Amino acid sequence: MNRMIEAYQKIVAPEGLKERIEGQIMQDGQIDVPKRKAQWLGSGWQRASAIALMTACLFAAVVGVGKWYRGHEGENLPGICLAMEEGEILGARHLPVHLVSEQTEHVSAISWLTESTKAAVFQVTSEQPVTFRAEIDCLSVYDEEKKRWTDCKNELMIESDGILCLLFPTMGEDDVFYIQMSSAGKESRIEIVYDETAAEYKAAYRTKLSE
Amino acid sequence: MFERYTNLLYRLCYSILLVREDAEDAVQDVFLKYYRKQPTFADEDHEKAWFIRVAVNHCKDILRRRKLREFIPFSEVEELLAEKEAEANDSGVLQALFELADRYRIVMILHYLEGYPVKEVARLCGISQSAVKMRLSRGREQLKERLKGVVIDE
Fold first, then answer.
1. Do A17 and B35 touch (CB under 8 A)?
2. Which of B12, B37, B71 is the last residue of a domain?
3. DSSP category for residue A14
4. How far A132 CA sits from the closest chain B CA (Å)?
5. A 42-101 near B (Cβ less than 8 A)
6. Non-local CB neighbours of A203 within 8 Å, separated by 6+ positions
7. What is the pLDDT of residues A139-186, one digit of tens each?
8. ipTM
9. What residue segments make up the domains of chain A, in order of their start?
10. Is residue B15 part of a domain?
């Protein structure tokens, strides 16, 4: 262990790094400040609506309004399908890894990437905008025109007919992962944990329908 | 501030990211965050913990983005590691640590090399103490396996 510490201590910052950082900080006023999440969510009423929805969901979660429905367990990543009806999240469930296409009443899984990327693409056909929030990992959307994934965000809002991809690329075996969704005042939460006995990820999801 | 933390942060970021240029950028970003936020601290330990926490989180973000967008064949990773670590790693022990998965490497660096107790590592990484202990245990096992007989003090 001492040898490891000694080797570790030998790692030093390269010459010029301090000066480079100092220089960067000196001109910090000219650096583009990253956009705030609220800006990313849209503008005007969209932002206000998103914030209001999230606040309502947080309030509902804290005070325990509504009743929880505990759904299926034991289906593997990578995808989660959201069942929606007029903006209301009725439930969520995992889809089989090798599924190519599946229709539900309001959500279609339109394609899958490889299993190793742990990704799935969904077509959300709800008529209401939906807010998705991933507390640890991130959400990306695929830009059909630019043929690339957008930057990874841990918070995003998509309009109806948006294409949503839920990614779980970095989960550790002992991590617990939550995705919280809200739409039209309804809240759903999905909890994904690693089952050591079964050596696989499992989803325990519950939908909380506000009353 | 620079004198106090540049080497510490660089060492930490480099050990997590394993790419010199990424580590430099990460250190810069951490200092920029500090100057933009201008946080106040109760004491020096608090300040140091803030820097480490921000650095670890930032590095984890970088790793996450890297995993999303890049795929490097393992053979190339090994070559990259060998090349990058040659000057710093004269015993091969550190190399073995660097080959561990991120989640084990980060907690082992903070605990064994930076000297933080389990409770503090848990706080810095935003995970439970039991998760830290489990990662340390698994990390030690994997390190032992890689070092073939070298005793890792617990």
1. no
2. B71
3. P
4. 19
5. none
6. A72, A73, A74, A75, A77, A80, A93, A94, A190, A191, A192
7. 444 444 554 444 444 444 443 333 333 433 333 444 444 444 444 444
8. 0.73
9. 37-209
10. yes
